[in-house]
């Protein structure tokens, strides 16, 4: 087979896979509700989907991992970019302490086990390669910078950055600058931001 033909076949294969297998389309269901404007990439891995509660207008991009055994709530308009993890438990401490006993039936208490829900407020943005851990609550309008590790409770409109994440700003500052240039959008912004 010639190199030119092989290259052409590879381009066709990638185009077909991208078009059919990795195409993100509108329309999902969550907790029995139809969400016509929510999109989840087919390459996103979701464990315990029955414990994931989504609002509409949510975007969950490619190569994300959501472990929802402890309950994950994602409010309206949230964007989760790519290569992010949302986890509701952490067992590594417990597994180190218990060794092989960790997986034994009836092992009982697991010291070091951390578990709890995650709640991401409306119109928040989760940057690539971020980790949202158990017992986290993000206020609405939060921006999580790329590569951040987030655990805890954060106020509305926080800009979070770092490992561990800390508040480094307020998204309303940039929003106000944009709204001055586009005053016709004020009513749309206020409809969710002033609730």
Mind explaining what this structure looks like?
The strands form 4 sheets. An 8-stranded mixed β-sheet has the order 1-2-5-8-13-16-19-20. Strands 3-6-9-14-17 form a 5-stranded parallel β-sheet, with no helix packed on it. It has a single domain (about 25-195), classed as Hexapeptide repeat proteins (UDP N-Acetylglucosamine Acyltransferase, domain 1, 3 Solenoid). The chain is built from 4 helices and 20 strands. It is of the alpha/beta class and about 200 residues long.
Low-confidence stretches: none
CATH superfamily: Hexapeptide repeat proteins
Please state the average pLDDT score: 90
| Number of structurally distinct domains | 1
Strand content: 25-35%
Q: What is the CATH topology?
A: UDP N-Acetylglucosamine Acyltransferase, domain 1
The neighbouring-strand order within the major sheet is: 1-2-5-8-13-16-19-20
What's the order of the H and E elements?
A: HEEEEEEEEEEHEEEEEEEEEEHH
Query: Which percent bin holds the helix content?
Result: 10-25%
User: Which shape, going by the Cα principal axes?
Assistant: globular
Compute the gyration radius: what is it?
20 Å
**Main structural class:** alpha/beta
- Characterize the main sheet: 8 strands, mixed
In the CATH hierarchy, what is the architecture at level 2? Answer: 3 Solenoid
Question: Mind telling me the CATH class?
Answer: Mainly Beta
Q: What's the number of extended β-strand segments?
A: 20
N→C terminal distance: 63 Å
Please give the count of helices. Answer: 4
